[in-house]
Specification:
Blueprint lengths: L2 H31 L4 H4 L13 H10 L17 H37 L2 H24 L7 H8 L2 H28 L4 H18 L3 H8 L1
Helix pairs in contact: 1-4, 1-5, 4-5, 4-6, 4-8, 4-9, 5-8
Length: about 220
């Protein structure tokens, strides 16, 4: 195991203990703002990693780069608008990952520019860490946007198809939910999702590069 392998493992641990709690906290915060205090009563309106880490999901992040935290439970009946509340609460998680990736991209570009100027190994390592953390956050955003239960994408998708869709999904999941969960585990740990998720992840990375284009000429002036 070389230095880059150690840095990659360390970066994934940062994602597990810092970024995953942000994702789940975003769900809890959105639900609370929209009128449901269930996450607050259950102790999920916090950034404490112990409240949010799911062991299997953490293993998925560590070995596959994709995973999940402990799902935040909500009571949709407390939302003023049932479908909209569920959609916005679900969307908050992937959006938080995208925001984290945005700041990681900025920090990566800063430290990479500093490294190219000074050729300081420490600068290279820090840039590499931010690159890995940003990339994993984009992967988590892409993964959670898949419109399949129990991922966030299913709740976002349901918003556009109304109550009939929700009734069908609930009926279907009562029969086949266990098998779908097992199937997802297999897809994740066998790497069969890597290619399609990688394409979405690369698209998100392209968007972030365009959103931070203003930083490149500024860094050229500084360094």
């Amino acid at each position: 195991m070389d230095a880059l392998d150690i840095l990659e493992i360390g970066s994934k641990l940062i994602v597990i203990f810092l970024c995953t709690p942000v994702h789940e906290f975003a769900h809890a915060w959105a639900a609370n703002k929209l009128g449901d205090d269930t996450p607050a009563y259950q102790g999920r309106l916090t950034l404490n990693p112990l409240a949010h880490i799911d062991p299997i999901g953490a293993i998925g992040i560590l070995f596959c780069g994709f995973g999940w935290g402990k799902p935040v439970q909500v009571n949709p009946l407390r939302f003023k608008e049932y479908r909209k509340g569920m959609m916005l609460t679900a969307l908050a998680g992937p959006v938080s990952n995208f925001i984290l990736a945005f700041f990681c991209t900025i920090l990566y570009k800063i430290f990479w520019a500093a490294y190219l100027t000074q050729y300081n190994v420490a600068m290279y390592w820090v840039a590499y860490i931010f690159m890995i953390i940003g990339s994993i956050n984009l992967g988590l955003a892409a993964f959670n946007l898949i419109p399949v239960y129990p991922l966030d994408g299913e709740k976002i998708f349901a918003y556009f198809f109304g109550n009939i869709h929700n009734a069908k999904i609930n009926s279907f999941m009562s029969k086949y939910g266990r098998y779908i969960t097992i199937g997802f585990f297999l897809l994740i740990f066998t790497g069969l999702l890597d290619r399609p998720l990688g394409m979405i992840q690369n698209f998100f990375a392209w968007i972030l590069d365009k959103l931070t284009f203003w930083l490149d000429p500024l860094l050229n002036l500084i360094f």
